[in-house]
TrEMBL record:
Residues 1-24 form the signal peptide. It catalyses: Hydrolysis of terminal, non-reducing alpha-D-galactose residues in alpha-D-galactosides, including galactose oligosaccharides, galactomannans and galactolipids. Belongs to the glycosyl hydrolase. GO terms for biological process: carbohydrate catabolic process. Its EC number is 3.2.1.22. It is an enzyme of class 3 (hydrolase). This is Alpha-galactosidase. Residues 62-293 form the Glycosyl hydrolase family 36 N-terminal domain. Gene3D superfamilies: Aldolase class I, alpha-galactosidase from lactobacil brevis, Golgi alpha-mannosidase II. InterPro entries: Aldolase_TIM (IPR013785), Alpga-gal_N_sf (IPR038417), Alpha-glycosidase_related (IPR050985), GH (IPR017853), Glyco_hydro_36 (IPR002252), Glyco_hydro_36_C (IPR031705), Glyco_hydro_36_N (IPR031704), Glyco_hydro_b (IPR013780). Keywords: Glycosidase, Hydrolase, Signal. Substrate binds at residues 206, 374-375, 451, 484-488, 534, 556. One of its GO terms (molecular function) is alpha-galactosidase activity.
Length: 745
């Protein structure tokens, strides 16, 4: 995360944004630099960045207390000293006071950020402020237990462009014995007092990820979580809270956050007895344990949080911008996603040299830039019963190795990508026969299989070395530009019998840390290789893995209509710039739905375009159409992948329509996609009112799919497109249209 507050970037960005009319309404405060200050007289810290202000203070009990989180305030606004909230016999002050980081002890009854068991049986920890330092704009506050040598450093790092605050906690054992961390979080976000809050979050399952949920926040607790060992699709580690009254996507205050962690995780949203709403996030406390030895430190995953004054749409745009400019590999200029072809839905496990070469030729003719061979190329892999773990090229399918295919792909001006699933093993594999002890297991208990496979214990140093070793070798021996890194089951029996019993639960943390460290090391040693995070679809998408991967696979569900909902949900926390989206067969295997090729393309063009169909089956007309759509995509891809997304009509609640608009960062192009599920009676498609344009600039409209209504002017002002709006000639079932607005002055 970069602090570019002192660069010219903010000024340049805002100069452009003022000219587009955006700056005045959305990001005017970006011109003001980010600052982090401490007022020693009131013992108050104040962090200002972009359009938000965050204030915390040390109260009379030495607790660190949230004083404000919201829209950026005037530099001179007063902040009196923090004062602990009073308590009674049942609800003690410790629980009532909105603390930044609370340990379990001193009678705490709300969700703790830290719970420790010491070897002598003591489980009470009470933290008080010790000292702090400010380095640039990064604030570190050091707390210590009232009697034991347990130190906690809370770190706050603001992002100058978006105001997103990155928080973490480091626990340090300076006692003379090990202790067990039973629960730990990066910190707690405390919202302003209120009783009308609404929580948004995401739920899902395989081939049905990214469903947006909304519920009023009532007294009690909602836990979003994964107990699966990795991120999971049941919930995604993201939340957004606003006032129940807001109805417009782009209006109102929104507080949001996301965890950067790809292991089991939890985010607890709690409204306490005093009607205060607090959000605590970190590794999942269920079955958790981390033995911290004398002298060791434990740093939590990052918990990012932000504030938008421009509704949930504004919150998404801040996250998208943050991901691209400050989080993804190669930020602030990650490469645009190439148009990709993937063999999975075309050939399944039945890959071989001539078959893949034939597909590569067809893909290249369409304008595809990257050819990816999916599952089936290695070991004894004929189906999903065997082969995982044996990462040598299957000699029957590729008698001359991968080189002839890779050379062919290169000769067609595409780069080459390969599917791997490094953390898994089939019991029917040489690796498992040799190392049955390498999987997660409890001795003497069954090893539950999922998709006929077991999970390698990546926390083990020998497993980590094996996984890194075969990937490094594969990349050294073959000219591979891209890995699709898959992960196709959840954990079961998460035992680690090779280590002493009191360290076994370290597996929850060490597995994920080793996963990240392998990705980091591969990137360092193979800097031109890009990586996609896939987990049977979108089960491992989070701000942790996105630090190491260039794109993600949101779902195995490639039905272009289902995808509208999936992509819509995905876009709340994550940028379409990393969202791979393939055009596949019709009717689709998912639900036997038939959709036109144009509809399928338009749906996929809302993200990073890929093609996953069997091109041998496409007619000459279809191949021609596809070639046109690929070329069209290349002319809008920078806007779609980097621009500012407006969800004009969401497909939520079974809406008959769905419309998105993306405005390029330079303001010169806006791209709109519109989809109709089905017309009823003689009704028209709702008028589309664009957003994010410059009222005074002129834009010309061009439909590249479907038709604008006959009376649409060829050119008009931003004010016209935003306030008068335009109509589409869209009727029937599963219809789609797309148009650009191009700025002419
Ligand atoms: C997972 C992925 C698919 C495909 C298969 C291969 O399900 O999500 O895209 O790669 O594995 O087995």
């Amino acid at each position: 995360m970069k602090d570019r507050s002192k660069t010219k970037w903010g000024l340049i960005a805002c100069a452009f944004l003022v000219s587009t009319g955006l700056c005045a309404s959305t990001v005017v405060a970006q011109t003001a630099p980010a600052t982090t200050q401490y007022d020693a007289s009131s013992r108050v810290f104040r962090i200002d960045a972009a359009d938000s202000t965050y204030v915390l203070g040390i109260n009379e009990n030495g607790q660190l207390q949230t004083l404000y989180w919201g829209k950026r305030l005037s530099a001179n606004d007063p902040f009196p000293a923090a004062k602990a909230t009073s308590g009674g016999g049942f609800d003690l002050s410790t629980s009532n006071t909105p603390q930044e980081f609370v340990s379990w002890g001193g009678g705490l009854t709300v969700e703790p950020d830290l719970k420790i068991t010491f070897p002598d049986g003591n489980r009470d920890v009470v933290l008080k402020y010790v000292s702090h330092h400010i380095d640039g704009n990064t604030l570190s506050v050091i707390m210590k237990d009232i009697s034991r040598e347990v130190y906690v450093t809370l770190e706050y790092q603001p992002d100058a462009e978006t105001g997103i605050l990155r928080r973490s906690a480091t626990i340090e054992n300076r006692t003379d014995a090990p202790f067990t961390i039973e629960q730990v979080a990066a910190g707690t976000w405390n919202l302003p007092h209120g009783t009308d809050y609404r929580l948004r979050y995401l739920t899902g399952g395989w081939a049905a990820e990214w469903n947006l949920q909304e519920q009023s926040i009532h007294p009690g607790k909602t836990i979003l979580e994964s107990r699966r060992g990795t991120t999971g699709a049941q919930n995604n580690p993201w939340f957004a809270i606003d006032h129940n009254v807001s109805t417009d996507q782009d209006e109102g205050s929104v507080w949001f956050g996301a965890l950067g962690w790809s292991g089991s995780w939890q985010i607890a949203i709690e409204q306490d007895m005093k009607q205060q709403v607090r959000v605590t996030g970190g590794p999942n406390a269920f079955d958790f344990g981390y033995l911290l030895k004398k002298g060791e430190k434990f740093t939590t995953p990052y918990f990012y949080g932000g504030y938008s004054a421009h509704g949930i749409g504004g919150a998404s745009r801040l996250l998208h911008r943050f991901e691209i400019d400050s989080l993804l590999p190669h930020h602030p200029t990650p490469k645009l996603r190439p148009v990709l072809y993937n063999s999975w839905e075309a050939t399944g496990f039945d890959v071989n040299e001539p078959g893949q070469m034939a597909l590569a030729e067809k893909a290249a003719n369409l304008g595809v830039e990257r050819f990816v061979m999916d599952d089936g190329w290695f070991g004894g892999r004929k189906n999903d019963h065997a082969g995982l773990g044996d990462w040598y090229v299957n000699p029957q399918k590729f008698p001359h190795g991968l080189k002839p295919l890779i050379d062919k792909v290169h000769s067609l001006n595409m780069d080459f990508g390969l599917w791997v699933e490094p953390e898994m093993v089939n019991p029917d594999s040489d690796l498992y026969r040799k190392h049955p002890d390498w999987v997660l297991n409890f001795p003497g208990r069954p090893r539950t299989e999922g998709r006929n496979q077991l999970v390698l214990n990546l926390a083990r140093p020998d497993v980590r070395a094996y996984v890194y070793g075969f990937l490094d070798k594969l990349l050294k021996e073959n000219d591979i530009s891209f890995l699709k890194w898959d992960y196709n089951r959840n954990w079961s029996e998460p035992g680690w019998p090779a280590v002493p019993q009191d360290q076994e639960k370290n597996v929850y943390v060490d597995f994920t840390r080793n996963f990240y460290s392998i990705l980091a090391e591969l990137r360092q040693n193979h800097p031109n290789v890009e990586i996609e995070s896939c987990s049977g679809g979108g089960s491992r998408v989070d701000l942790g893995v996105m630090q190491y991967t260039d794109e993600v696979w949101p779902s195995d569900n490639t039905d272009a209509y289902d995808r509208l909902q999936i992509q819509n949900g995905f876009s709340y926390p994550y940028t379409p710039g990393v969202m791979m989206a393939w055009v596949t067969e019709s009717p689709t295997w998912v639900n036997n739905r038939t959709l036109s090729l144009e509809y399928r393309f338009l749906s996929s063009m809302q993200g990073s375009l890929g093609i996953g169909a069997n091109l041998n089956k496409w007619t000459p007309e279809e191949l021609t159409k596809a070639t046109q759509m690929v070329a069209q995509y290349k002319s809008i891809r920078e806007t779609v992948q980097r621009g500012e997304l407006y969800r004009l009509i969401t497909p939520e609640n079974n809406s008959e329509q769905s419309v998105t608009e993306t405005v390029s960062r330079d303001g010169k192009q806006a791209v709109t996609f519109a989809f109709l599920h089905s017309s009823t009676e003689y009704s028209s498609f709702p008028r589309i009112f664009l957003r994010g344009l410059d009222e005074n600039a002129m834009y010309s409209a061009h439909a590249f799919a479907g038709k604008l209504a006959g009376d649409t002017p060829a050119q008009a002002s931003g004010a016209y497109w935003m306030h008068h709006g335009l109509d589409l000639d869209l009727r029937g079932d599963f219809q789609a249209a797309a148009f650009t607005l191009t700025r002419s002055n």
